[in-house]
Design a protein that fits this description.
mainly beta; about 55% strand; 10 strands; 8-stranded antiparallel beta barrel; 1 helix
Length: about 220
């Protein structure tokens, strides 16, 4: 029997492995710009996220995400004073669509001990995005560069819980209203004439689409 088993092809069920996951999250936003130059969490807002992720392997993943949220600021809380002594307060509603690449520091997943998979892994991420917003009854849009860090945890085979912190550079100075578009009269400055915001989000996602339901091999 042992000889027969070595000669005949064997059909074995593989450990379940999925290519995609989908989910959402909720979190907090921060803002840095002309109405807040020091403390990212001075006037925190909120964010909601929808995500779709393609998991190429245990180390690399590509994520499409959509955010909506609120950003707030108040220049009267700053020690800096504008040239004319004005103060401005704003509340911005934003919508962001982004494409991100993720690198897990550990082989993330469950099962298949020979691959040394871990149920928890920190990761780094970066990408490109487009943000549209509305503030003071006026809209706008601009490209963004989001980058940051995160942590993934797998409580079960197909479920994931995540925590992610992203900083996002916006290539415009009107995210905080037109009143704060270059209030210091600096015509060209990478840091001064663009706004930044952050999202700090807790997510939950569910995996689907088996990568390999049945495997065949010969000894």
């Amino acid at each position: 029997m042992a000889v027969v088993s070595q000669i005949l092809p064997l059909k074995m069920e593989a450990q379940e492995d999925y290519r995609f996951d989908i989910g959402g999250g909720v979190g907090m936003t921060g803002y840095l710009g002309d109405a807040n130059t020091a403390s990212l969490w001075k006037n925190p807002g909120w964010d909601l996220e929808l995500l779709f992720r393609y998991m190429a392997n245990p180390r690399w993943a590509w994520k499409t995400n959509f955010y909506t949220g609120n950003l707030r600021g108040d220049s009267s809380q700053m020690t800096n004073v504008f040239p004319g002594g004005e103060t401005y307060k704003f509340s911005t509603q934003f919508y962001e669509l982004g494409e991100m690449v993720e690198f897990n520091f550990l082989n993330y997943g469950m099962g298949e001990t020979y691959r040394k998979l871990k149920r928890i892994s920190p990761y780094i991420t970066a990408g490109l995005g487009l943000t549209a917003w509305s503030v003071d009854g006026k809209g706008g849009a601009g490209f963004t560069i989001p980058f940051g860090i995160g942590l993934k945890y797998k409580p079960s085979l197909r479920w994931n819980i995540g925590f992610e912190f992203l900083m996002k550079k916006v290539f415009t100075d009107r995210l905080d209203s037109q009143n704060l578009d270059d209030p210091y009269g600096i015509k060209s400055s990478f840091m001064k004439n663009t706004d930044w915001y952050s999202t700090m989000t807790i997510t939950i996602s569910y995996e689907f689409s088996k990568r390999c339901a049945v495997c065949h091999y010969k000894e």
